[in-house]
Fold this sequence. Notes:
Blueprint: H1 16-30, E1 36-38, H2 47-53, E2 56-58, E3 60-65, E4 68-73, H3 81-88, H4 90-97, H5 101-121, H6 124-138, E5 144-147, E6 154-158, E7 161-165, E8 175-179, E9 182-186
Parallel strand pairs: 1-2, 4-5, 5-7
Antiparallel strand pairs: 3-4, 6-7, 8-9
Amino acid sequence: MVGDIFDFYFEYYIPKAYSEVMQALIQLMHKGTKVYYVLGNHEMYPVERFKSMGLWVGDRIAMDIGTNKVFIAHNLEGLSWGQKFMLRSKAGHLLSSIVPRATLFEAGLLWAKTSCLWDRLRNRRRMWSKIEANWATLRKRYDVVVVGHYHTPCIKEKNGSKLIILPVWTKSWGYLRYEDGEWRLIHSRR
């Protein structure tokens, strides 16, 4: 999973839908499935909770899948200083704990909607040029780079390397499948 599944998750306030997803993940793990969770840029400090559930949690991961060296991250730029402070630091977490949870959750949803709107309005060519530059560096070491975040699902290939951008899960139940040596984006409407 490549993040932003639990937008603005707070230890002291867990919306019902998040609890249902967590229960589904726990059921998968009880069946022997190893679950890796790469944090997104909207998740507030869920690391300890997720680790206590048995999930691997981090900002990025590299692994071998089939014959491929694969790099997985939510995005290729990482978090800004402000996001690191608010979303990942104990101080940001403490600060968020004094704001009423309903207010904080609504503010988080507004931030997410504003972020998506900003993505649509900003210059796509500039965004793709940053993605391409980061991918150029990563493809020296990895055969496949998998990210979410960009709201533009695709598989691009260059010099024997693949860049895979996953679909936005809130708009479809899309996912990535690796089977028989092939990578495929599956788009499945709700």
